[in-house]
TrEMBL record:
This is Tol-pal system protein YbgF. Residues 101-218 form the Outer membrane lipoprotein BamD-like domain. The keyword Transmembrane helix does not apply. The lineage of its organism: Bacteria, Bacteria division WOR-3. NCBIfam families: tol_pal_ybgF (TIGR02795). The keyword Coiled coil applies. TPR repeats lie at residues 137-170, 174-207. Keywords: Coiled coil, Signal, TPR repeat. Pfam families: YfiO (PF13525). Signal peptide: none annotated. GO terms for biological process: cell division.
Amino acid sequence: MKIFPFLFACLSFSSCPYHKLLIQQTASLDTVKVTLRKMERERKKESTELKADIETRLERIEEELREIQAKLEDLYQREGRVLKPTPETVAQPDTTFLSGEELYNQSHLDFTRGEYDLAIQGFRNYLRKFPNTELSDNAQYWIGECFYAKGEYETAIEELKKVEENYPEGNKVPSALYKIGLIYLKMGKKREGETYLRRVIKSFPNSPEASQAKERLKE
């Protein structure tokens, strides 16, 4: 039973090799723990700094966008117009000195901005001044698209039909017929819609609209 005094002696004197090994291992573990804690603090610090940097940059970008928006609004106001006007306050730009192409492009730009009433007025003004140009059927087509975008489907169909009626040789005829078919389908009038889609396929077999019509008829 002399093992206990021996163990006591080993634990009591640093000269015991086992005691030295235990101390070394403990010290190593402590060093690792300190290192890990330091790394964890640095990681959190870096994460916080990165997040703060991102937030700062986003705030700067948002501020720049607000400045750009303000400049655009000022520009439109200088032209006698405002962004996204309501139908009751649609601005009337002076188109007296615009060429046909300029008037058409301005009207199409209004359409892309969602200013449908203004675009309709512009396209109709174009047709009054330039009723028989290469862009006349396009102007008539976009009038129909404007009414479609406004949700006025019956009026859109009426305007789109005028493309074929007034410009039977125009390049927008297949687009107009295809659009009419889609509107009828959207309205739940399947028979009328499919009739127009088949007309596109039959009359304009090599057009992109014919390919699209075939796909829609498969659905």
